[in-house]
Automatic annotation (TrEMBL):
This is Integral membrane protein. Keywords: Membrane, Transmembrane, Transmembrane helix. The chain crosses the membrane at residues 33-53, 60-80, 86-107, 114-131, 143-162, 171-194, 230-255. PANTHER family: ACYL-MALONYL CONDENSING ENZYME-RELATED (PTHR22911), SOLUTE CARRIER FAMILY 35 MEMBER G2-RELATED (PTHR22911:SF137). Belongs to the EamA transporter family. One of its GO terms (cellular component) is membrane. Residues 2-129, 144-283 form the EamA domain. InterPro entries: EamA_dom, EmrE-like. The keyword Transmembrane helix applies.
Amino acid sequence: MVALALVTSLLWGLADFGGGLLSRRTPALTVMVVSQSLATVTLGTIVVATGAWSEAGPRLWCAVAAGLIGPGAVLCYYRALARGPMGVVSPLVATAVAVPITVALVLGERPQPLQYAGIGIAVIGVLLAGGPQLRGAALQRRTVALALVAAAGFGAVLVLIVQSATTVRGLLLALFVQRLCSVAVGGGALFAAARRGAPVLPEGGRRALAGTLPALAFVGVADLAGNATYALAASIGPVTIAAVLASLDPLICALAARGVLRERLRLVQAAGAGLAMTGTLLLASG
């Protein structure tokens, strides 16, 4: 379970980094829709090949709900980033982990005392790894509200993914349905943006977009695979622990920026990384 949850954080962190990098030249909504569309086609092929259609049942409504909530959460996240500094917005959105933890505790999960300590330390580490701006970061209430709505949305998606299936083939179908709904909602928003005259293509037009398709496919598939490994981790072990370990993606994103873009880690991010790893060790040893 620990290994699956850590793989989830790696996949989500790389997807976040890749999506953020691509969004510097291509509108973020286009990046989301195209990357998710490519992932949906890939997963659809797997669903047909494995006969996962036979797993259809009432639980799929959880996947539909996740697919409808996800794009709204992403949109709130992007709008919050546009209004306020990333060093404040990102840690606020990272509080999404509180949703699955709270639900799991309400449903009766009771981690060991050492694991409670690990959860607290790891969550603080994740918040600090986002590079919070501790000074000069005055925000409008609307920006804070958008970030918290995004966090609630992402947290709800984590809960719904776990509830959407009980078998591996059922999970494949649920993730396909989720992505199909997300693409439909995102595609509608993209069409509306184009009708308003907003830019939906990068500089260079369709040819430039075609050149980024491999990278977009990686982002979409990595995010999708992260959802799958998280659902498997949460089904094997305590959700409280799986959710915390899977939420280390801001740290992965920061390390990727350090390695690829040569961005220097701030002192607070380095401290957050240390706390996150300490919390991970406590959770794994509990």
